[in-house]
Amino acid sequence: YKRQVVEARLFQAWLRLGQPARARRILSPLPPDAVADRSVGRLMMECRLDSVLGKPVADRLQGAVQRHLPALLPRNRLTLQLQLAAALPPEMGLALARQVLQQACASNDGVMLSPILAQCAEALRQLGRGAEAARDAAEAWAAAACQAPFGMYWVEFCWKVHQAAEAGGRPDLAQAALRSGLAWIEQALPHVPPEFVESFRHRLPGNRALLAKVAAQRSGSAIPLQLRLRGTRGRAQRCAAAGRPVPPGDGSQSWRAPA
Predict the structure, then answer these.
(1) What is the H or E stretch that residue 161 is in?
(2) What is the rounded CA–CA span in Å between residue 183 and residue 187?
(3) CB 3.0 to 4.6 Å from 19: which of 14, 142, 152, 189, for a disulfide?
(4) Would you give the DSSP letter of residue 253?
(5) Can you give the pTM of this predicted structure?
(6) How far apart are alpha carbons 83 and 79 in whole angstroms?
(7) CB 175, CB 235: distance < 8 Å
(8) Distances (CA, A) of 106 to 70, 78, 103, 149, 177
(9) Dihedral pair phi/psi, residue 131, rounded to 5°
(10) Spatial distance between the Cα atoms of 9 and 256, rounded to a whole number of angstroms
């Protein structure tokens, strides 16, 4: 069990650094008699890696749902279905995410609300239903102010909220999410080894997209992006003082191991 926990943390660290190949090498083979929670958890980690690389993962996740869902711990069932919802076409993904939301509410699992609502908002945005997307994004943002989004990287969460809010005519929420995601990246950068700074900024889809949006918004400024990143902490602190959400965490814990 201890080895499983250490591997999961190292896996998350390498993935956050934009190093999927190193993350994959961390994972040791599972024993043939591994319980469903452990084997499905491994599958989900592998699918996260492949998603970063742009590879399709829906079929593998759907197979895991069909074979193992009843045997999983309650939160693991929600996490698996939510990851599948993100991999499906938006109409199918939205329907599944709504079902997962109902399950989370029925089990009073508050830490799952913000990532589920963010995924609903993303699917609605892709379907061109901007007003509904902004509504769910606002609910996701409010939920995340209370509890960090379980299993969803904070910058990815902020990017989903930003896009949905922007599509639904909520520039205030869109900019708050953009600032918060940028603040998280800025706070992480001093702890990133120099050789991994570029992969951290550009290989993770959420980081890459958010930084590109910030650069596009500030393209008229003569201040280099790196300096602008360093100046974000003060804006994040002022945002917190004003009562607007700031990043509560990075969602690095994404899978509950069986006892």
Answers:
(1) helix 154-167
(2) 6
(3) 14
(4) -
(5) 0.83
(6) 6
(7) no
(8) 16, 12, 5, 18, 28
(9) -65, -45
(10) 13
